[in-house]
Specification:
Elements: H1 14-28, E1 32-33, H2 34-45, H3 50-62, E2 66-72, E3 75-80, H4 82-97, H5 106-125, H6 130-144, H7 146-149, H8 156-187, H9 196-217, H10 224-233, H11 237-276, E4 283-285, E5 291-293
Antiparallel strand pairs: 1-3, 2-3, 4-5
Helix pairs in contact: 1-2, 1-3, 1-4, 1-9, 4-5, 4-9, 5-8, 5-9, 5-11, 6-8, 10-11
Length: 296
């Protein structure tokens, strides 16, 4: 880790804890008592040890992923932070892709998440491209629909067209809004006034974006799907037997390729983390704390 940066606390209970806080918060609309989170952890994640749940809470709070809200001097409720929501969405996407047989250190997992933030950031930033299209559709709606919709004899086909334009504008605005929220949060720009339901939508959209890149770059092999498709469209019985056998073989090969890809990506991220923690100059510090030049 870089000097001066607080160590990232990670345990396997942290992100399930945050996941529960986000989901309950989005539904209830207010700070969450620990009792509700414990019930969610048991039902949704199968985590029943109260001590483990508190370990997840402590790590989430220390990392700035959860905010404690004082209810009484000795009682707290919990609210997810925006960056905690985004990182948990990224983690959920990674968890679907990363093999459980490949163990990641806390530092490597942290770097994995930071690496994926860039993917989510650039994807979200592209939503600013919606701005000129929103303006265009607004103009079309204004000139084509405003006057007609206020009249009782507006043609049905025009009403349908205007309704479609409204849906397009709403969709483009929605993409722009959440893209801007996610991009700003990752860039370190403060975002205020998000409603609990909107935070839940940020969570869902982050999972979708991160999953797209995780599946593309970390687990790229899906050759068995080709034979699965052929099986569905083939009418020959003999072909079915051969295609089924080939699909089975390719499932095993895909698993091997994916495991290798995940392992190498894990190593790459770990090495990246290690290199980033080194000084930017060619100076280092010896055991006595004195700086000296690296010998070539």
């Amino acid at each position: 880790m870089c000097a001066g940066r607080r160590r990232f606390r990670f345990n396997k209970y942290m992100f399930p804890f945050i996941d529960c806080v986000i989901r309950i918060y989005a539904d209830s609309g207010g700070p969450i008592p620990i009792k509700s989170i414990i019930e969610c952890m048991k039902e949704r994640h199968g985590i029943r040890g109260v001590r483990n749940i508190y370990e997840g809470r402590d790590a989430a709070v220390d990392n700035g992923y959860i905010t404690e809200v004082h209810v009484t001097p000795k009682r707290y409720y919990y609210v997810p932070t925006l960056i905690g929501t985004i990182d948990t969405g990224i983690y959920q996407a990674l968890a679907k892709t990363l093999s459980s047989s490949v163990k990641s250190s806390p530092e490597t997992m942290y770097t994995f998440i930071r690496f994926m933030r860039f993917m989510v950031f650039w994807d979200s930033l592209r939503k600013y491209d919606n701005v000129p299209w929103i303006m265009d559709f607004n103009k079309v709606y204004y000139y084509k629909c405003n006057m007609c919709l206020g009249q009782s004899n507006c043609p049905r086909n025009l009403i349908d067209s205007c309704n479609m334009i409204e849906e397009v504008i709403k969709s483009l605005r929605d993409e722009l809004f959440y893209g801007a929220v996610i991009a700003k949060a990752i860039a370190g720009v403060e975002v205020r006034g998000l409603k609990p339901m909107q935070l839940g939508n940020v969570f869902a959209k982050t999972i979708i974006i991160a999953s797209k890149y995780a599946e593309k770059f970390i687990a790229p092999s899906d050759s068995a799907d080709v034979y699965s498709i052929y099986r569905k469209i083939s009418n020959e019985v003999e072909d079915q037997q051969l295609l089924k056998a080939m699909e089975h073989v390719h499932r095993r090969l895909d698993a091997m390729v994916n495991k290798a890809a995940i392992y190498l990506t894990n190593r790459l991220v770990g090495n990246l983390m290690s290199s980033l923690s080194k000084p930017l100059t060619n100076a280092t510090v010896n055991s006595e704390g004195k700086q000296h030049r690296l010998e070539r």
